[in-house]
Task: inverse folding
């Protein structure tokens, strides 16, 4: 194995992408979401694969439930 200064390490790409998207999110959206949460409301999106309503923040961001996200990931790896 050669030692290169810019050798790329394997990193959890999805987590980093999520963080990046969170930074780009409109501050007004964050305020709205906080206000909704205080009122007892939660954002929900439907899973793109199975249509289940998702409320977990990480699932909402992906528009995929944890199970379907794993399926999608393995399918992407195979294809
Ligand atoms: Zn699903």
Result:
């Amino acid at each position: 194995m050669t030692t290169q200064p810019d050798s790329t390490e394997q990193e959890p790409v999805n987590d980093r992408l999520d963080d990046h998207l969170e930074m780009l999110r409109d501050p007004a959206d964050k305020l709205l979401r906080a206000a909704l949460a205080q009122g007892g409301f939660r954002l929900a999106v439907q899973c793109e694969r199975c249509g289940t309503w998702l409320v977990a923040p990480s699932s909402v961001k992906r528009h995929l439930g944890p199970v379907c996200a794993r399926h999608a990931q393995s399918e992407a790896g195979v294809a």
Q: What stands out?
A: Strands lie at 45-46, 53-54. The mean pLDDT is 80. DSSP finds four helices and two strands in the chain.
